[in-house]
Amino acid sequence: MVVIRLAPGGKKHSPVYRITVADQDCKLRGRFLERVGIYKPGKTSGFLKIEKDRYDFWVSKGAIPSERVQKLVKDNQKVAK
């Protein structure tokens, strides 16, 4: 099964997460099919950049986004409007 999930990265006390499309059996930091975005949380200003067309493409093909990714995308759509 193909999933869309957050892959951890960054430095200590400065996390950065890549939004990746990967096979469910692969490790979090392992092999992935495509990177569709990046998320950098922050108390004052969080940063989210997502390629919406690629995200929609993978969801249409049957990829299942994680709960956190769904929430980030939903919140990003509210801010964009």
Your description of this structure?
With 81 residues, the chain is an alpha+beta fold. It has one domain: Ribosomal protein S16 (S16 Ribosomal Protein, Chain: A, 2-Layer Sandwich), CATH 3.30.1320. The chain has two helices and five strands. Strands 4-3-2-1-5 form a five-stranded mixed beta sheet. Strand 3 and strand 4 form a beta hairpin. The longest helix has 14 residues, at 67-80. The radius of gyration is 13 Å and the shape is flat. It starts with a strand and ends with a helix.
Give the radius of gyration.
13 Å
Task: List the total number of helices.
Answer: 2
Alpha-beta classification: alpha+beta
Taken from the alpha-carbon principal axes, the silhouette is: flat
- Give the neighbour order of strands across the main sheet: 4-3-2-1-5
Can you give the helix content as a percent range?
25-40%
Distance between the termini: 32 Å
| Named CATH topology | S16 Ribosomal Protein, Chain: A
Tell me the layout of helices and strands:
Elements: E1 2-11, E2 14-23, E3 34-40, E4 47-50, H1 52-60, E5 64-65, H2 67-80
Parallel strand pairs: 1-5
Antiparallel strand pairs: 1-2, 2-3, 3-4
Question: What's a quick, concise take on this entry?
Answer:
By secondary structure, this protein is an alpha+beta fold.
Features:
single chain, 81 residues, alpha+beta, S16 Ribosomal Protein, Chain: A, five-stranded mixed beta sheet, 28% helix, flat
